[in-house]
Amino acid sequence: MKGYVIRRLEYGDFDEIITILTDESESITFLSKGSRKPLSKNGRNLFVGNYCNFEVFLARSKGKISRLKKAISIEEIDWRMEWFTPFNLLNEFVSNYQSFNRNLINVYVNLRQLIIDCKYDELALILIVLEQIIVLNGISIEVNKCIECGNKKIRNLSLKKHGFVCFDHFDPNETEFTIDECKLIHHLFNHQYEEINKYHSLMKKMIYILAQYIKDNLGISFVSISQIKA
After folding, report:
1. Fewer CB atoms inside 10 A, N or C side of the chain?
2. Which residues does the UniProt record annotate as the domain DNA replication/recombination mediator RecO N-terminal (predicted)?
3. For 31-57, what is the mean pLDDT?
């Protein structure tokens, strides 16, 4: 089977528990014996993000774990990516994704490549990953007109209503966002990623807001977000 390494956990002295995302959007976890040994042939191919061909002895009963026979790299990435927050966030989300979604592999591959290309800075890439997580989970945020009436004269972003609101539907009891913060969200959810670089000073604040929005609406929280430098 072919797939991407999305999680790598130490197990015992020399073994690892590996989770991969296959080309069919399936998440499979297996034991990799001896892959932490310095001369392990499998170990050098199991960096998170690598695309490999895996030979696996699949477990035949519940309570048993599958075991890796061989991993052959098809496409390797720089091992230093494991310390890059957008990449960690992407793999953290995908490795913990509970439902089957055929679009998951496409989202992963596209975001992985976007992060590798590094056309945008770290904070912008984190925002892009968060936006894709929201969309993949079926939440639609209206960022082009008032979600209540369609008016294009926008007053605020309502996280409660999942979109922009006009002056008539503005709720003063909700968090009020600045014009630039609304513009950042508008560009982000319209995939105008070049434009969000203009609002770099606002990115960290909006990362925490979107992360909290995801936690409130999807029940998902991310350890990777804590890696962002203060």
Report:
1. C
2. 2-74
3. 96
- Cβ(4)–Cβ(50) below 8 Å: yes
Rounded to two decimals, what is the model's pTM?
0.94
Is there a contact between 129 and 86 (Cβ–Cβ < 8 Å)?
yes
Residue 5's closest CA among 34, 45, 39? 45
In Å, how far from its chain's centre is CA 91? Answer: 6
Is the Cα dihedral 23, 119, 97, 143 positive or negative? negative
Enter the tokens of residue 164.
């922009």
Cross-strand partners of 15: 11
Res 162: pLDDT: 98
Domains of the chain, first to last: 2-75 (2.40.50.140), 81-227 (1.20.1440)
